[in-house]
Amino acid sequence: MTAYHVEDEELESAKRWWRRYGRWLVLALVVGLIGFFAWKGWAYYRGREDLKASTLYSQLQTASKRGDAKQWEGQAEVLIRQYDETPYAALASFMLAKQAVLDGHLNAAAKHLRWVVDHGSQKALREIAALRLARVLIAQKKSDEALKLLSSGFSEAYLPLTQALTGDAWLAKGDRVKARDAYEEALAGAQAMGLPTRTLEMKLDALPAPAAQGGK
C-alpha cells in the first residue's frame, strides 16, 4: 500500500506541475517546431533560388561566348534584379562592367561595380568590386574618390593590389613621393606573399630616384 501511496503522490505532483507549466511547455515546443520548419523552408527556398540563378548564369556565359550581347546582357540584368542575394548577381555585374570598359563607357562600368560594392552577397566579391571600381575611378580622373575607396579597409590578401592602386591614384594626382611609397609597400607585400612583382618594379623604375624628386 505504501508503494501505491507514493505513486499516487508522484502522479498528483506531476499533474500539479503540468497544470502549472504544461501550456508553456507546449507553447515552447510549438514555437520551436515553427522555427525549425521555417528554417528548413527558407533553406529549401534559398537552394532553389541559387539553382535557378546558377542555371541562368550558365546560359548567360554560353550567350556571351557566342557573341550574343543582347541576350547575355539581358540575362545579366535579370540576375541582378531577381537574384540579387546570390553571388551570380555580382558575377553578372562584373561581366557588364568589363564590357562597359571595353566599350569605353566608364560611367556604366562604375555603376555596375558600385552595385556589387553596395549589394554583393559575399565580402570577397565586394572587395574585388571595390578594387576594380578604384581602377575605373582613376581612369576617370577621380583619384580622390579612388583613394577614399582604397582606404576603406581590405582583407590582407588584397593589400598588395590595394597599395599598387593607391600608388596609381597618387601618381595620377602628380604626387610621385606618395606614389613611390605606395608602390614600395605593394612590392614588399607582394614579395612576402610570393606574388609576381615585375609590374610593380617597372612602375618604380619609371619614377625618378627619391633624391631627384624634390618633393613630388
Q: Helices and strands in order, then pairings?
A:
Layout: H1 2-65, H2 69-82, H3 87-102, H4 106-119, H5 123-139, H6 143-150, H7 159-172, H8 176-193, H9 198-206, H10 210-213
Helix pairs in contact: 1-2, 1-3, 2-3, 3-4, 3-5, 4-5, 5-6, 5-7, 6-7, 7-8, 8-9
Membrane topology: Single-pass type II membrane protein
Organism: Acidihalobacter yilgarnensis
Domain Ancillary SecYEG translocon subunit/Cell division coordinator CpoB TPR: 15-208
The secondary-structure class comes to mainly alpha
| Radius of gyration using CA atoms only | 29 Å
Q: Specify the number of helices.
A: 10
Q: What composes the largest sheet?
A: none
User: Which sequence of SSEs, written as H and E, runs from N to C?
Assistant: HHHHHHHHHH
Shape: extended
Poorly predicted spans: 1-6
Number of strands: 0
Q: Please give the share of residues in helix.
A: over 70%
Determine the mean pLDDT.
83
Write a brief caption for the model.
This protein has 216 residues and is mainly α.
General description of the model:
This protein has helices spanning 2-65, 69-82, 87-102, 106-119, 123-139, 143-150, 159-172, 176-193, 198-206, 210-213. The protein has 216 residues and is mainly α. The longest helix is centred in the N-terminal third of the chain and has 64 residues, at 2-65. It starts with a helix and ends with a helix. Pfam families: TPR_21. Keywords: Cell membrane, Chaperone, Membrane, Transmembrane, Transmembrane helix. GO terms for molecular function: protein-containing complex binding.
